[in-house]
Write a sequence for this structure.
């Protein structure tokens, strides 16, 4: 037994030693990694270098913005040499009076904090120096533990040994948190000085510098407006410390304490194009990580077109104002929740995002609705149903569909009856008329004819990030998609079948010129060029004769696109394009309150005012191989003969053009009166609340179909 004990002891000791060595090794590696980050992000001074944003739109490579710091501020970091000496002294008096004499940690402060912590049996006081506060804010979590405190102290010593006191104080003054404004943090002496006193920090008075230093510990609570007496007492205490250490004279002290403690109205300079730059920064972080952004000094070449971006921001801001002035219910609803507009413009040839506006007002809501919002696209989704039908070669643009009451059996022994927006039926209509006038019933009938599975499969090829169920209401756009997905899908029409993946960042270089990221154009053929061209003519017809005819008032009759009013009138869309720009406009309320406006009334004016304000191409794609043109009778869809209505110059896939001529004479008149006497359709621009309630019930039934379709897919794929 004794021998066994003697054998076990060395083994246990060895295991403990190895475990201890591993722990120490891991701790050393952890500290080494953090030290490298400190070197890259602070010691090398790249944080002072601007991030330069360059636009590649039009091949200009023109600089559009210079931004500073990790959060991309428009003003350069404050320099200690450009500030009155008492600015830095005031913050030292408030936070770290022995700053210029310690080596990164303050033994006296640590001892005082330790006594308080022991008394309260926890970490009550930190005893943090300015060095430690920088390390904690930049590299560590805010949790109050001994482990974090030890790492913080070690790194603070390293920082103090490798940078001068002035350099460290500059970092602190540019990073210190000094409250919130419009939902965003106020960081650094520059932002605080401009916001609270309406002046740059170089012009701060002594009492104002001490006032800012006095609110550091509780900047959202201890303000002149909320606790003036507390703020005054703390400001005067800071001034006393400064006088005690000889940083200010007795006269300066007496003059400073005579001033009232109050903030004046000012503002923080804002960077241009806030929605675009926020999305740009997010894309860069996804591609190369956050570290290069923190280090600064980057040169970023992006796809923004500054003129288009400014025009999009103006259109998104003015659109809701115009609708609120015109419609009382929009005005009343906007009092509780602002009406939002999102705009996304993409170059279909490359996928470059030329303009991006995620909402009507970035200051009120910086949420990017172009990427993170999922909504029903409504009739804008019909393009993919019609593309599936044309590609099947079972129908053509001249084929006739029946616009009459339709009942479809759905699961559970129930039936679904689609309706047109005006609750009317027109008898026989052509595929072109059904698409251009956005008729729901013929669209559903067409999808049933070619197979809803084919429609779902075709739509998925256009790059939507989900599988679509085989539900009858699918072609009416009852599934939810993002604006980015919908815009990307439509890039396949002006390019005759090539879908381009949207992107913002073309290239990123570091301060030394090294390429950190370079984008490669991502295009994929999703439909044949011949099918895409036929769809292009249908989408052109929407503008020439259909639900987007109002665009001609803006001189945009050459554009193509599709309106998208959801069946409950909650969302209004228009996805339109020219040869070099696919632009999507969406309007609605975030909580889904009824908009009660058609896309022609709500989205078209915004799209028109935006596109008419920016330069773009007016050219049209040339007909590709595989299509044939014929003159047809627009009422019967047959080949045109003298004496028939028309002719209408129609396009067909090779081999699908009609072969019979239209009836003429007495027989033709009888046939037209019996089968083709139809009424003109115009999408109602606005609906009453009673109509909304009726359609809302219809949408609930359609949404149930979507959910049942998903359930079937999950059972099939075992999810």
């Amino acid at each position: 037994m004794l021998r066994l004990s003697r054998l076990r002891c060395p083994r246990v000791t060895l295991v403990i030693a190895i475990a201890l060595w591993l722990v120490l090794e891991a701790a050393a590696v952890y500290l080494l990694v953090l030290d490298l980050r400190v070197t890259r992000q602070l010691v090398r001074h790249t944080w002072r270098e601007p991030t330069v944003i360059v636009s590649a739109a039009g091949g200009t490579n023109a600089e559009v913005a210079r931004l500073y710091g990790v959060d991309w501020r428009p003003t350069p970091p404050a320099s200690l040499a450009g500030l009155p000496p008492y600015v830095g002294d005031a913050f030292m008096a408030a936070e770290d009076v022995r700053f210029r004499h310690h080596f990164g940690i303050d033994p006296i402060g640590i001892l005082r904090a330790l006594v308080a912590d022991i008394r309260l049996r926890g970490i009550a006081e930190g005893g943090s120096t300015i060095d430690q506060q920088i390390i904690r804010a930049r590299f560590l979590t805010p949790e109050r533990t001994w482990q974090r405190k030890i790492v913080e102290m070690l790194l603070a010593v390293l920082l103090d040994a490798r940078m001068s006191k002035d350099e460290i104080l500059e970092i602190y003054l540019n990073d210190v948190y000094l409250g919130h404004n419009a939902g965003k943090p106020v960081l650094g002496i520059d932002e605080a000085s401009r916001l609270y006193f309406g002046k740059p920090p170089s012009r701060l008075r002594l009492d104002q510098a001490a006032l800012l230093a006095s609110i550091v510990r509780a900047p959202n609570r201890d303000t002149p407006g909320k606790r003036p007496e507390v703020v005054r007492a703390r400001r005067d205490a800071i001034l006393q410390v400064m006088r005690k250490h000889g940083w200010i004279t007795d006269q300066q002290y007496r003059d400073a304490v005579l001033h009232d403690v109050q903030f004046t109205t000012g503002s923080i300079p804002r960077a241009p194009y806030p929605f675009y730059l926020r999305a740009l920064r997010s894309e860069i972080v996804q591609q190369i990580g956050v570290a290069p952004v923190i280090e600064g000094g980057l040169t970023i070449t992006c796809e923004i077109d500054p003129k288009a971006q400014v025009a999009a921001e103006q259109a998104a801001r003015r659109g809701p104002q115009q609708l609120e002035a015109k419609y009382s219910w929009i005005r009343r609803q906007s009092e509780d929740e602002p009406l939002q507009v999102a705009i996304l413009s993409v170059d279909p040839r490359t996928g470059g995002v030329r303009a991006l506006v995620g909402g009507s007002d970035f200051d009120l809501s910086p949420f990017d609705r172009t990427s993170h919002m999922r909504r029903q696209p409504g009739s804008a989704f019909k393009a993919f149903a019609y593309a599936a039908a044309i590609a099947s070669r079972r129908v053509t643009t001249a084929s006739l569909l029946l616009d009459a009451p339709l009942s479809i059996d759905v699961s559970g022994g129930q039936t679904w009856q689609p309706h047109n927006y005006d609750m009317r039926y027109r008898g026989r209509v052509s595929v072109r008329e059904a698409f251009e006038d956005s008729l729901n019933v013929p669209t559903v009938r067409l999808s049933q004819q070619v197979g809803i599975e084919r429609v779902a499969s075709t739509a998925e090829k256009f790059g939507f990030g989900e599988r679509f169920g085989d539900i009858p209401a699918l072609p009416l756009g009852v599934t939810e998609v993002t604006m980015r997905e919908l815009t990307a899908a439509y890039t396949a029409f002006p390019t005759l079948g090539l879908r381009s993946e949207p992107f913002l960042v073309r290239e990123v270089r570091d301060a030394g010129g090294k390429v950190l990221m370079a984008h490669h154009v991502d295009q994929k053929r999703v439909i044949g060029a011949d099918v895409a061209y036929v769809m292009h003519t249908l989408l052109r017809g929407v503008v020439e004769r259909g639900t987007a005819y109002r665009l001609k008032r803006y001189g945009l009759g050459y554009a193509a696109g599709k309106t998208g009013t959801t069946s409950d009138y909650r969302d209004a869309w228009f996805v339109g394009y020219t040869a070099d720009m696919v632009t999507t406009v969406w309007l609605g309320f975030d909580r889904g309150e009824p908009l009660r406006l058609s896309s022609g009334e709500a989205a078209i004016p915004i799209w028109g005012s935006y596109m008419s304000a920016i330069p773009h191409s007016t050219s049209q794609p040339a007909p590709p191989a595989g299509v044939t043109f014929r003159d047809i009778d627009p009422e019967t869809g047959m080949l045109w003969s003298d004496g028939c209505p028309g002719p209408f110059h129609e396009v067909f896939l090779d081999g699908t053009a009609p072969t019979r001529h239209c009836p003429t004479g007495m027989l033709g008149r009888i046939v037209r009166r019996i089968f083709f006497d139809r009424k003109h359709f115009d999408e109602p621009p606005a609906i009453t609340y009673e109509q909304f309630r009726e359609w809302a019930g219809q949408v609930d039934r359609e949404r149930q179909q979507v959910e049942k379709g998903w359930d079937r897919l999950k059972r099939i794929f075992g999810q």
Summary: Residues 2-43 form the longest helix (42 residues). Confidence is low (pLDDT under 50) at residues 120-126. The chain has 23 helices and 22 strands. The domain at 377-488+520-565+619-713 is CATH 3.40.710.10 (Beta-lactamase).
